[in-house]
Each structure stands twice: as structure tokens, then as C-alpha cells.
Automatic annotation (TrEMBL):
UniProt enzyme class: transferase
Protein name: histidine kinase
Top-level division of the source organism's lineage: Bacteria
Domain Histidine kinase: from-to ranges: 221-434
Segments crossing the lipid bilayer: none
Organism from which the protein derives: Thermohalobacter berrensis
Amino acid sequence: MLSGSKEGREFLDNSGQIVKCQQDGDYYSIAACFNRKLKLIKELIEKVPYKKDCKEFLDYSIAKVINNIGADYGYIVTINDDFTIDFISKYKLPDELLNKLKSSVFSKELLKKRIKKGTIKLVTKSDLCVSEKHILHKLFLQYKIKSLVEVPIKERDNTIKGFLVLVSQKDENIFQEHIYLLQILTSIILVLLKDHRKHEKRQKELVKAERLKILGELAGGVAHDFNNVLTTIIGFTQMALLKSRNEEIRKLLDIIYKSSLDAKAIVNKIQNFNKTSYDKQIDLHNLNSIVENVIEMAKPKWKNDYESKGAKLEIIKRLNSKRCIYCNEHEIREALLNIVLNAMDAMENGGKLTIITYDKDDKAYLHIEDNGIGMEDKVKEKIFEPYYSTKEARGTGLGLSITQNIINEYNGNISVESKLGSGTKFIISFPSYSKVDNIKEENMEIPKYDSVKTLIIDDREDVADTIKELLAMLNVESDIGSTREEIFRKITQKEYDIVICDLAMPDISGLDVAKEIKEEYPNIKFILMTGWPGDIEKDKLVNVGYMIHKPCTLKDLIKGIEKVVE
């Protein structure tokens, strides 16, 4: 602020005090200096938001301050809450000197002391001549430093978040007149740094959201391809189960079939990973049956891993539960398989795995116990935390966290007992219900539709062949078409009752096929198959009598035929 007569003008100095100057030259020199300071502040505020990240912003800030003040070099250091270094941004600071600073003044203990003190530190060569034991004495001599100023970067509550340090090799008194300005600049830098961090966080969230969107689109395409493959695997496995009378072969086929259904459930999760909820089949399932499936699915691991090492794994089963649990069978099987595989990992050189089920009050219980390496208490306390892992590169740490979430979703409970060197036991319980006679799909009564004629439309020959073979088991006469010309040629040559058509094909959409067929042949029933995620708008399904999601089973086809025939 400037005021007064030409002879005795007043100005506001760096400490905020009003002083007088007698000469016009002094006045204009002060005004020019004041303008430079205002310009520096203006440039920081205006140009900093355009820096791409916090590091670039701090690099820009320290360069601007040094060039305006007339220092030779310097740095800004920001500090985390645990007294570790967050950022170091330097300008013209020799790398050798920076390394020495890191090993001395940047140590955690010294940072704590400086933060606790929290004052501006101004050190000159003359000061150090008096105290040769000062930590900076050797550095001043080696790098011909004459003056150094350290200004804490403070929050409003005086919490220190870092330091601004400037060095001069020319003038011992250069920083004294700039102390007040440096305090203002550190406050501005902190405010802008916090804004930059918020901006960076928002940008990262936007990038993450965009990546998730792209990942969702990619997942949809990959899941569609998987569903086509699974349609063939599930279809022919079902046919083999229905035709085979060899119990050993049927047992192996049943594992393939159930594993394929589990794969179908996993693909469904991939398709719906960005939805808040999605439909999944929940029903009563026999606990012992699920456990037996899990043991069979884990068999290849112990057959391969243990036998290749010459080790032996003994499995003890005492499956005494007589009740059922209400759940999605595939999810529970996935959760229990994860626990069993973890138990095997804990017994790399062989051991004993004990699996027990029993009923108590209104609950069904499952114990999975190994005599492997066990866990320390601190590990046991964290075992269900997301991303926690004891397997280092061999695992993601997601397994037991997801396992717990799945079990909890069906009102179940899981706990763990373990001691280092004495093995681990997982205790799982579910609300239980009276046993129901679940008719296995492969043993169900197969209806016959001798008079039904069907046209199958799919660009994948293997999928179309699978559907045709499954329909043959229902005594349904069927033909296959893949191109538009072939489809309408067959329809004009033969009277079909049902058309089963894929939704997405390279040259034509299943919905367009449905519209064209229904316009010309309104009595033909139309079943749409899709391996893509997401719901189709109702107004687009006006020509569709029933929709089947790939990979489809024989039961799905029966439901579809029954629905449209009605």
C-alpha cells in the first residue's frame, strides 16, 4: 500500500509494517518489487491449474519462486502424516547435494523435530562459523553456500505439510527481505496443491469409470463367446449322461456337467459385474451333495500335485448331515472349493484333510480341517480381509474374502481356528431345511414332441448342431439355417412350428428375423437365444414367444417348447 506526499511516501514492507522512503527512486524501486511479487502470486494461481499432476505443479512453483527471489537453487518437500517424504521437487539443486540431504535432514527423526518446532529457519555462513558442529556446516563449505532459508508449509491449524527451502551462493542477506512473501507463497502453494490432489482424484475416478465401461463391453463379448462354447460342452455332456449306463463314466461326466454349470455361473457374474444386482437361481440343495462335488472337483489337484512329489494326501469324510441349504449351488460350491484348495496348499508335502457335516438345531454344519502349517494369530485375524494374502505371488488375496461374502449372503457363518504348526479348521454353518427329493436333471423324465418341427438359426455350426442333437432327444424334427437366404428358403419349403434363433449373428439380427417371419408366418412360434448380457427392451420382444440364455441345457429347451406350445 502506498500513500503520502511525494517527499514522504509510505509503503507496506515484507513484515506488514508501514515504513517511509524519501526518494522517488526508492518509491519506484519498491513499487516495481511489489509488482513483481504480485505478478508471481498471480502466475502461480493462474497457471498452476493447467499442470498435469502434483509433481509438475510443484516443479513449476519452485522454479518460479527461485527465479523471482534471486536464489541459486532450492526445493519443495511435502510430507505424509507418518513423516515420510511425499514429493521432492527441486530446481537447479545438484543431485549429489539432494542425496546428502536425503540421508541427513530428510531422515524421519529430523523431520519430526523440525515439524514439532515449526518455525522459519534462516541460516547464513556467518552463523555456521560460530557453530562448526551444525549439521549444515560441511554442506555450506562444500557447496559454497552463503545463505539458506527453510519455510514450513502450514495448514490453517499450523499442521506442517512440508517445507520450502531456498539456497543462495551469492548473498547472506538475500532472504531476509522476502520472509513475509515466502510465508504467503507457501500458503498459496498448499491451497493449490490440495486443489490439484482433488482434481487428480477426480481424474483418476473418471479414468477408472471409463476403463470399467470398456472392460464391461469387452467382458460382454468374451462372455458371449464363452457361452457359445459352453452350450456345446453342456449339451453333449447331458446327452452322454442320459445315454450312458456305466456308473464310473457317469460319475466323471457329472463332474464335467456340474463344472460347466459353474462356469456358466461365473460367466454370468462377468456379464453382470457392473450391475448392482442380477438374477441368480436360488433353491434348496443337499449340503452333502455339494460337498461331494467339491471333493471330486479338487481331486485333479491332489492327484497331480501330490503324486508328482511322491506325497500322500489322506481325505477323511464323515458326511452326516441329512438336511438342505437354501442357496445358489454354484456359488456355494465355488466358495467351498476355495477353502479345500487352500487347505491343500497348506499341506504341500502331504497330510490329512478331514471334512465333516452334521445337523444341529436348525442349522447344517460343515468342518474342513487340515493338519498343515497353520497360522499365527495376527494372520488369522486378517484372513478374511480383502486383498490379504499369505501366498505372495501365488494368490490375489481375494479368495477367502469372497468366500465369506458368499456364505454370509445365504445367512451362513464362517469362522476359523488355527495355530502355527498345528493346522487349520474352518467351521461353516447355514440355516437348514428338511430334505427334499431333488430330481437330477440327467435322470428326469424326458418328454416327447413327435409332431413338432423346428428350424434352428445360428451362425455357429457347433452350437446349432448341439441344439439339434438335444432336440432329437425330445423327438423334435429340426433343420439348421445360418444365412438369411437359407432361412427363408427353408421356411417356404417346409411348415415349421417353432423357430429357435440366435440374437447376434454377423449378417442379421435375431430380432429382425423374428419380425420378418411373424409378418409372413404369424403361426410360427419364435424362441430367441442369446449369449449376451443385459436385458432387451420389452417393445423389441413383441415377436418373441420365449427367450433362452446361453449356454442352454435340455431343461431350458423343454421349458421353451412348453411355453410356446401352450
